[in-house]
Amino acid sequence: MFKKFTPKEDIATSTKVKSSVQRNIRAKLLEQMPHLGDAVAPKEGSDQERILLEELWPKKDDLTLVKCREHVSLLVKDGEPLFFQHFDGPYYPTLKLLHRYPQILPRVQVDRGAIKFVLAGANIMCPGLTSKGASLPDSIPADRAVGIFAQGKEHACAIGLMKMSTDEIRSINKGHGIESVHYLADDLWSVSTL
Hints:
It is found in: Cytoplasm. Helix content is about 25%, strand content about 30%. The chain is built from 8 helices and 12 strands.
């Protein structure tokens, strides 16, 4: 999705999001990523707990919707892309955001042999998720966004969309299990501000 993304050429429009639309986006984000509603430690000098989504994007802060070619939309706060969406599909966090808050997406792990393919943007094959060194949690349904971690590494190397449920991946063990949508070193990763 972001193999050849250059902001100067690919951004069509950039608009501030109305507060009523922001509320709808917040609701969708919390529905798709329930861990965004988790409590986080209070900021220094404060004793008030906040939820993670409020930490990332306070209600009073402006949000910019950046529409790009190929029907990709980015949610940007203070120039930093936080989430993206393709057509009207699910929202995904950017990898930089997932590195700061790894709990917001379910975690799957690929074996060492799959790492070079994942870093090239390839879809994740079922055998790379079921072999020794891989880890596949129970009960992740199809069409769910997941963080893809590599064996022996601390941070996610990609974000993907489950094409099959984890039970189907284990039983079939053939074909594409996860579609890669954003990975380390793709052009969205390289964008620092918009």
